[in-house]
Design goal:
about 190 residues, alpha+beta, four-stranded mixed β-sheet, about 35% strand
């Protein structure tokens, strides 16, 4: 082979290598885009599910808190005047309301899931649940209604007290203040240390 032929062969080889090198880069970019699309799709599916699970856990915590409060109130009613119990309010989302005017203790929170049938009040054991739709989120109310059974007060007054969500738990002191009538016991709430 002469020098010119070798040079032409060398140039052809170099062009072929450059074409393959460019093709490899294009393939790499395409595969990266496909991978990113798959990851994006998975995240779009997983993140809302994670939020739903978190909302279910928080709603269950709220129900557990209301059950603990109800148990303490029932104990206090049974053991009589002067007895006191404590409950830690450890719900991380939503507001706790003690309504002495209506004799209701409730937790209201926003959720990405409907915890009960929308618009209807449902009773689960002693706790009532009500879910209202607010656009793409839900307002979930769960509570205990003692109207006609127990007189609920806060610091001895028939008012309404709100406890907003907090990183630290509220320590609620629940006391039996005696009977206000033959059938009704006064259960008073206050904030502990």
């Amino acid at each position: 082979m002469n020098v010119v032929t070798r040079f032409h062969n060398f140039v052809k080889m170099e062009k072929l290598i450059k074409k393959k090198s460019g093709q490899i880069w294009v393939e790499t970019v395409i595969y990266m885009l496909i991978g990113l699309a798959i990851i994006g799709t998975l995240l779009a599916i997983i993140i809302p599910r994670y939020g739903e699970q978190e909302d279910k856990i928080i709603a269950n915590q709220a129900i557990n808190l209301l059950n603990r409060i109800d148990t303490r109130i029932r104990d206090l009613r049974y053991y009589g005047s002067g007895n006191t119990r404590m409950v830690k309010s450890d719900v991380k989302s939503g507001n706790l309301f003690i309504d002495g005017e209506k004799d209701v203790i409730k937790i209201v929170m926003e959720s990405s899931i409907a915890y009960s049938e929308v618009g209807e009040k449902v009773k689960e054991d002693r706790i009532y649940l009500k879910t209202d739709e607010l656009g793409d989120i839900y307002r979930v109310e769960m509570g205990l209604n003692y109207s006609g059974q127990i007189n609920i007060t806060y610091n001895g007054e028939e008012g309404r007290r709100d406890f907003p969500k907090s990183a630290t738990a509220y320590e609620l002191v629940i006391s039996n203040r005696g009977r206000v009538s033959n059938d009704m016991t006064n259960i008073d709430f206050s904030l502990g240390n």
